[in-house]
Design goal:
With 303 residues, the protein is α/β, with parallel strands linked by helices. Helices cover 42% and strands 19% of the residues. It binds S-adenosylmethionine. S-adenosylmethionine binds next to loops.
Amino acid sequence: MSTSGAAPAPLLTEAELKLLQALIYQECGMHFDERRTHFLHDRLLRRLKECRVDSFYSYYRLLISPAGKDELGRLLENLTVNETSFFRHKAQLDLFQKHVLEEIFRQKSARREYSVRIWSAGCSTGQEPYTLAMLVADALAYYYLRNPLPVELPLPKPLIPPPWKVEILASDINYTVLRTGQEGSYSENQMSMVDFGYRLRYFDKVGERYAVKKALKEIVHFDFHNLKTEYLPQRNDVIFCRNVMMYFDEAEQKRLVEKFYRCLNAHGHLFVGHAESLLGLTSKFQMLHKDSGTAYQRIEVRA
Ligand SMILES: C[S@@+](CC[C@H](N)C(=O)[O-])C[C@H]1O[C@@H](n2cnc3c(N)ncnc32)[C@H](O)[C@@H]1O
């Protein structure tokens, strides 16, 4: 018998688990199989206690009620895994910078179309989109070192040489990580993958932390987007969606890859996580592989 006076934790029945799993899947595409049921149970229990609800069924009823909309958002935030780092999977980033970007600059310059749009879908706390911003800024500078512009640039030289316009959209389903990304302030620990050259050029030291410089911040825009929804940002040259699809089941992965196809410009590129692949999900992309980095390029259908 409990002597502490605390009420025993409510039991999660099979039926309640199924209802909650289905609701979460319908809302954000996350799929909790047997290996992740323990994690789901733990997070649900935390929210139950916070809301002072005494059964999983009552909690489910709250979530589907109009009054439970905010709580549903909080639950989803508690279920996301936000692990990330700067310069994650270097070989893939080399492929992006040295081959994909180079080709984009070359082709767009020839067409006199000077805008590049990159989307980091499932950006977590911002390390991925800021990494992409640093890589694009350096790649453009290097491109113009070899192909000088006909005009003198004003001093100090802008991060993105005109007439180019670079836009990096960073989106996530979790408002808390989006706020952290927008602040752009990182601890020494979080900076472990950022070498001193990048630190010097793109960060200011503020106390113990590193703050992303204003010029770099200006090309990254953080916004809420749920990848489960149909209407997603269009006209991207490149989409990075790494370590997100692995939490979806195969049916949802197929739907997402189909949506990404439509969100990309012709011949656009999609980068997925190291442990993820498009194999068996689509025949609309061709795989590019270089020095252990992989990307997928949109295949264009001839009219
Ligand atoms: C493991 S992090 C990956 C971060 C970064 N892409 C990387 O690879 O380092 C996965 C991110 O996907 C987000 N996410 C999960 N489901 C999502 C959905 N349905 N829509 C948008 N973002 C989602 C999570 O909130 C989380 O921040």
